[in-house]
Amino acid sequence: MSPSCTGTGPVSVFEAVPCPHSSNLEVLKSLDGLRSETPALPVGFPQSLEEELAWTGSSFADESAYVYNLTDADILELAAGLKHFKGLQLDGDHLDRENFPLPTLGLKLNLLSLDVHRGKGFCVVRGIDPRCYSVEDLTLVYLAVQAYVAKQRGRQDKRGNMLVHIVADNSTAERDNHHRHSNKSISFHNEEAGDVVSWLTRSTAAAGGKCIIASCYTAYNILATERPDMIRTLARADWPFALPRFQCRPILFYQNSQLIMNFGRAALLGSATHPRPTRLPSLTARQVETLDALEAIAKATQLEIQTQAGDMHFINNLAVLHRREGFVDGESTMDKRHLVRMRLRDPELGWIIPNDLKREWEDAFDKEDKERVWHLEPMPDAFFPLRKYPN
């Protein structure tokens, strides 16, 4: 018997908003699907979320609100910490706040960590020049900054890969179509696990490739006001996820006064690299309508971040959606987009994870006896299979 998810509610159709920078009002005018007969919000969900996390791209007059520019003193402190750590002759997997001391910069990074977990949900640390470091030293500096933002690092697949290299690669059709190796734009999503998703930008594309983010809290507020039936749809436990394993669960959770969203379109609709097995249930028209509405609102309220080489992004993966702009690589190494992704959690500041998501978090963070593999450069598929993981 094929797996199934049981859902309820009438079906409607939604046409996505074409203009990504239209006002909220214009977005809402396009939410013209048939409303549910029971438009009330799910029990326990708030009418609105008046939080710092409920921002729009226009909330930020300039990037100084979310970019921390390292000072000369910060760079020197990182150099001293790097020398100290290397003198201990430890593997990078053992790097932490104690053996990579940052007495002054560390305090600043702790404040950024609070902003990621309890403030607006994201920050960028800027000022490292990748050309001044070996690949190993650059990775250690990244791990050091990271250690002061979120202490735990997550495994990103069953092989224990800790680093994911996001680079364009059209050597095969499969790689060219995979999110990780395509140069095409991708839709808004969360990572399957990790309270915080982080990227080190080793180099940028010749054109395009912006990091684009959007607030789940803002999307919630818009839908709760105009289409509460869609909030009910998102909160139902009948979304048939195909990856990384088949599971029926909600996209949207509200617990401990915190809104949590977790989904990706490839896991729900399939993709060229991840064709959806016919034995699995398809999304209903209402679910597709709701996904399209969420994408349209996210695009209308998004923040575009022009990334520079050496940037370190830290994004609250539970409350902020992210996507990528399409890009074109150049001929030189420094004109080819190369991001290194990690998934993080902080034991003190980390949010309580819903039961439906705990298995992915446990696989990433709680299996201390499992192997952890660190590839400092992109590796063949055998080391990091593409078919199982959409991102």
TrEMBL record:
SUPFAM superfamilies documented for this protein: Clavaminate synthase-like (SSF51197)
Keywords, comma-separated and alphabetical: Oxidoreductase
Residue ranges of every copy of the TauD/TfdA-like domain listed in the record: 96-342
GO molecular function: oxidoreductase activity
Keyword Oxidoreductase: yes
InterPro entries, per database record: AlphaKG_dependent_hydroxylases, TauD-like_sf, TauD/TfdA-like
Domain of life: Eukaryota
Name of the protein: TauD/TfdA-like domain-containing protein
